[in-house]
């Protein structure tokens, strides 16, 4: 695993953990929810910008992304 891949993996782990705590979910529940709406792909794709944002901003962005996806047929 190169440095970029490792940074992305740490970032995704951070986001999952923070989302889990914020929503009071188990790790499995958080992963199911984030995978259902493609959040992890989104976070990875936009890592360069997103990893510079605050915890609260990231959580709000994740919520907004999920709400937008809920409005579309998945």
Mean pLDDT: 94
Order of SSEs: HHHHH
Note the gap between the termini.
32 Å
Contiguous uncertain segments of 5+ residues: none
Number of strands: 0
Instruction: Give the helix proportion (percent range).
Output: over 70%
**Portion in beta strands:** under 5%
Structural class of the secondary structure composition?
mainly alpha
Q: How many distinct helices?
A: 5
Largest sheet geometry: none
Rg value: 12 Å
Q: What's the shape?
A: globular
Write a concise synopsis of the structure shown.
The protein has about 70 residues and is mainly alpha-helical. It has 5 helices and no strands.
Task: Provide an overview of this structure.
By secondary structure, the protein is mostly helical. It contains 5 helices and no strands. Helices cover about 80% and strands about 0% of the residues. α1 (about 5-25) packs across α2 (about 25-35) and α1 (about 5-25) packs across α5. The longest helix has 21 residues, at about 5-25. The N and C termini lie far apart (about 30 Å). The model has no long low-confidence stretch (mean pLDDT about 95).
């Amino acid at each position: 695993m190169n440095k970029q891949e490792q940074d992305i993996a740490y970032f995704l782990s951070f986001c999952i953990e923070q989302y889990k705590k914020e929503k009071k979910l188990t790790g499995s529940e958080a992963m199911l929810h984030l995978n259902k709406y493609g959040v992890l792909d989104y976070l990875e794709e936009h890592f360069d910008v997103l990893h510079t944002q605050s915890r609260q901003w990231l959580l709000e962005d994740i919520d907004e992304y999920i709400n937008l996806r809920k409005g579309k047929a998945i």
